[in-house]
Amino acid sequence: MRLLVGLGNPGSQYTHHRHNVGFMAVDEIVRRHGFAKAREKFSGLVVEGVIAGGRVAALKPMTFMNESGRSVQAATAFYKLEPADIIVFHDDLDLAFGKVRVKCGGAGGHNGLRSIDAALGADYMRVRIGIGHPGGSHLVHNFVLSPFDPLERVHMEKLVAALADDVGLLISGEPEKYMTRMALLAPPPAKEE
Asked: Which of 6, 118, 168, 191 has its CA at 20 to 30 Å from residue 67's CA atom?
């Protein structure tokens, strides 16, 4: 069994924010792979299904980003999983907008990942979804808690669809092929100054 975790903040006011791209990815995985309706459990929303012939649980912690580890730890214990069975989808400031990287370890400055690391250790897979960087560190808080602009949103919807369509590659142990597929998506148009 695999546990797919999308990181974000609960509440409709955060739905389309950059910090919620992990929620967007997991929602699209659930939709495209025909999972049943999510239920409240593990201080989150969880739903089970099958992808690439394997059992999968998809979890969205409803604890707010900084407490994500509590929800992920509860689900991991219930399903009797190891950290290596977990795949976490999250936003990444250090990647250019629309870039995707898959790796193990390294929370960087991401509070959701830090919380999971504190609860379980760092030996789980991370799908880093680039949201770009606003420039100065003093701009980060407002940037991650703001919505994508219209052009970014169109591209992010295409990217999230591709993340969902090809997630079977991750479950089958082919992260390099997964990243290659994501890299083939056309970048969004450059912003006009």
From this structure: 168
Q: Which residues does the annotation mark as catalytic?
A: 19
CA–CA distance, 178 with 135 (Å, rounded to integer): 29
Query: What are the helix (H) ranges across the chain?
Result: 21-32, 68-79, 111-120, 140-144, 150-165, 167-171, 175-183
- 17 secondary structure, DSSP code: B
pTM over 0.85: yes
Cβ neighbours around 28 below 10 Å, total? 21
Task: Return the residue matching tokens 């509860």.
Answer: 74
Q: What is the rounded average pLDDT for all residues in the chain?
A: 93
What's the pLDDT score for residue 109?
A: 80
For residue range 119-141, what is the model confidence (pLDDT) as tens digits? 999 999 999 999 999 988 899 99
Residues ≥6 apart with Cβ < 8 Å to 27 = 6, 60
As to burial, measured by CB atoms within 10 angstroms (0-12 exposed, 13-18 middle, 19+ buried), residue 150 is: exposed
Q: Which residues contact 13 (CB under 8 A, 6 or more apart)?
A: none
